[in-house]
Structure formats: C-alpha cells, structure tokens
Amino acid sequence: MQVHDVRAHRSAEDFPLHEHLAWKIAEMAADPVAVPDDTAEMVINRIIDNAGVSAVSVLRRPVTVARRQALAHPVTNGAQVFGVPGGYSAEWAAWANGVAVRELDFHDTFLAAEYSHPGDNIPPLVAVAQQLGVSGADLIRGLACAYEVQIDLVKGICLHEHKIDHVAHLGPSVAAGIGTMLRLDPEVIYSAVGQALHLTTATRQSRKGLISSWKAYAPALAGKVGIEAVDRAMRGEGSPAPIWEGEDGVIAWLLSGPDHTYRVPLPGPGEAKRAILDSYTKEYSAEYQSQALIDLARRLRDRIGDLEQVATIVLHTSHHTHYVIGTGSGDPQKFDPDASRETLDHSVMYIFAVALQDGNWHHERSYAPERAHRPDTIALWHKISTVEDPEWTRRYHSTDPADKAFGARAEVTLASGEVITDELAIADAHPLGARPFARPQYTAKFAELADGVVEPAEQQRFLSVVEGLADLAGGQLGALNIVVNPLVLDKAPDTPDGIFR
Q1: How many C-alpha atoms does 202 have within 13 Å on its Cβ side?
Q2: Distance between CA atoms of 146 and 150, rounded to whole angstroms?
Q3: How far is CA 447 from the centre of its chain?
Q4: Which listed residue, 23, 39, 55, 172, has the most CB atoms within 10 A of its CB?
Q5: Phi-psi bin for 83: left (phi > 0), alpha (psi -120 to 50), beta?
Q6: DSSP one-letter code for 12
Q7: 177 lies in some domain
C-alpha cells in the first residue's frame, strides 16, 4: 500500500493534478490489476448478504416508497428493481435497492477513523452493470475497487468528528467502482469522483437524536448521485477541483482545516484491491458496535441469573460506542420506549437489556413496540450506562487486525453488592471471532431472511446464479435480481402518491 499525505492547498500554490487525491484514486481505479480469488469469493458473499437483508425488508414502508418511486421510471433494457420484473433506469433501481439493503442496518461494516457499510456500493454498481450489459467478471472488478476506495478513505479520513455523514466516502467509492467496471480513463473517473464527493457531503443529523427512515435513504442517495456523476463525466463534464485539497474544499472547510494532514492508504500500481477482506458482516440487525455486546449479554445472562437483582450495569467501551450509541451521546431518545426503530438500533443500552433478557436478538421482535414497552425491560434499560475506556478506544483504532476490537467490558453490580465482570472484544461472527462467517453462514443468513418472502425455488436459482457470477457474460446480470411473489408484495403498506407516478 502507498500512504498519501492529503492536506488543503491555497489556490495560488503549485499543486499539480497528479498529486490530487481524486487523481490518485482514479489512477488506482483504472489499473487493470487482476482480482484475487479470495476477494472475488468475498464479493459474492456480500451480494448474497445484501439479497437476504433486501428480502426481509421488502415490505417495510421506506423500502416500499423507494420501490414505487423507481417503478415510475421504466426503460427498455434497464436495471432491475429488487422483487419485481422489468427494466428501470439504473439510478432509480440503485435508489430502491439501496434503501432495501440499508433499511434494517443488517449488512456489512468497516470501522476505523470513520465508519461505513461498504455493501452500500453493491446496488449502484449492479444497476449500472445490468443496464449497460457488463459481464460478471467486470462487476466483481468494480466492486473490489469500490470497497477498496471506501475502506481506504475510512482508514484515513474521519468525518464524524466534524459531524459529516459517512456517506461522503460512499459517493467517491461508487464513482470509482463504476469507473473500474466500465474500464473508463482516469480523467473521466477523476471528474466523477470529484462530483460525487461534492454532492454527498451532508451533516450527521440523520444519525443523531430522533433517527428517521432517512438513515436508510442517505446511502441510496449517495449511490444514485455516484451514477449520475459518472454519466456526466463520461459526457465530458468536469468537477470542482481539487475537491478534497482546495482552498475552499472539503478539508479546509468541512473537516480539520488547512493545517491538518490526512494520511490515506491506496494500493500502488499493479497491487491487488483486497480491502473487502478487512470488512465484516452482521449476525444481528443492530449497529455494529452492538454485535459483540449482544454476544456478551448472551454469555452473561446465565452468570447473572435473576435480572431483577441487577443494580447497575456499566459498559466500558470505545469513544465511538460511548458517544454514538451510548450514554455519552446525551440523547434522551435512547431511553425512550416510543423511539423509532432506527433510534433503538442506536441505543446500546436498549440492545444490551433485551439481549440479556431474551438471550438472542431478532430483526423484528427485538424492536417491536410491545417489546420496548415491557416494564421489566424499561427498568433494566435505565440501569445501563456506558463510559469511555482509553484502551478500548485504542483497540478500536488499531491497524493490527488481531488487536482491533469493537467490544466492551461489562461490570454488573447486583443488589447484594456482588460485581460480575466479563468482556468480549469482537463479535462471534467476525472473521477472528468464535463463529466466523463464511459461505455457509452467508447462505444460511440469506435463507433465514428470505423465508416466507422468496419462494424456495427462486432462492436456489439466485444462489446458483450468484455463485457463478464470474462466468456470466454481458447482458446476463439481470439474473441477479430476485423476483418476489406478487401476492407477497401486495402486503406492502399503502403509501400516498407523490410526484412520480
């Protein structure tokens, strides 16, 4: 890997194009390096993962709204919208499918200086590939690049400390990945990356306080914007430049300012794009920092016994967990039984309480209003707090995969004064965890989530297609779409009409 120093420059400075971060990303994206077998295997795993979470969310209101918007944009030989036949404009298909993927917060993750769900790259790249007749091998190449760009930006540039939403790394990764997939020249990719970043820098309020369905829409919009940016760049349109380093650019005014230097790693010429292997999926439908804590709660409940005897529970954890999903956030909504599902998903106090009581976690039952309103749950929930522990923060940011951790130490004080402690650094499903996910676990998760939504024969057809993705010729990627029985889709909620019909 090559590590690039990235800082703001005054307009009067001599700052040549080839030193711009967007250009370095474009050169890397245009490098025709082969995709390693393990990277290609993981790309397929994540397409399967996305399909499962899309299936289980297909009847939810935000997904239904996005799908109905997309269905208002049919085109001949277009992209596919999850669950339905027909062709639709690629950017609208990406929009609908992106919301379906993101709605339940149940797909893959990568956490470092920033955080991300790099599986959000899959819907826009698949949609463009379907509309333009791209081969399966080139789709895999594009996705390997998209994952690489987003994960490398996440390693090098923190957004959330400046209250910028993490999708500001997704727009550029989508643009770069499409550029790789379509074998575009660096000049075109450079312009697309710049446009995509410029148009996807938004505040983090979508993940703060009373969290709404926009949390699911934000990545879908970034994917849609990325597609449109590539289209304009292919037609010869330029972008703000230098977008990261300019005097009025992202670093100078939205991030750490003109005196700060970021260090962004990128593969060098001829170096394979392997960053997808650094990411990890979720076993549970909850914020990633909750994954290990759900496993820890399951392990602790037998040691605690009677949960009525719990006086307090303190979770010693990382800065990110404490301030984003813990009591360090200062969000009273994180203790509100009437809070939205999206808000409860970002309350580790609620999640730990329910996991202690139930010994498991379910994407629907664990968030149900009647579950959140149980008096014993509310009582336990309010006994839980978080504190930042510098060691957990250090491990969160560690670059050593064997040391990097997203867990916590739990200190449970009982009414008797007895203190029970236990800790877990990584989730059981993590690649280094007790039960790491591989192809059998991805297909099992897909089957569980698709059950009752997708017919068994259609499930098997999809798995057969995706497992042979590398051999699919141009024009065959429509087979990646899963068609849901119309009788199932008829159960989707009624929604008011909008502008698009």
Answers
A1: 20
A2: 6
A3: 21
A4: 172
A5: left
A6: T
A7: yes
- 3-state class (DSSP) for residue 317: strand
Give the separation between CA 261 and CA 12, rounded to whole angstroms.
Answer: 19
Residue 443 lies inside a defined structural domain of this protein: no
- How many whole angstroms separate alpha carbon 480 and alpha carbon 465? 7
Residue range 408-424, pLDDT digits in tens: 999 999 999 999 999 99
For the stretch 297-319, pLDDT in tens is: 999 999 999 999 999 999 999 99
Burial of 232: CB neighbours in 10 Å, binned 0-12, 13-18, 19+: middle
- Cα atoms in the 13 Å half-sphere on the side-chain side of 141: 21
CA distance linking residue 61 with residue 104, whole number of Å: 12
pTM of the model: 0.93
Same-domain status, 221 and 341 = no
Q: Which residue has the tokens 């938004």?
A: 202
pLDDT in tens, 144-165: 999 999 999 999 999 999 999 9
Angstrom distance (rounded) from CA 289 to CA 425 = 10
Examine the domain organization and report whether 7 and 141 are in the same domain. yes
Per cent of the chain over pLDDT 70 is 100
Angle at 492 between CA 488 and CA 496, to 5 degrees: 150
Task: Please say whether the beta carbons of 223 and 121 come within 8 A.
Answer: yes
Q: Is residue 263 part of a domain?
A: yes
Return phi, psi of residue 134, to 5°: -75, 150
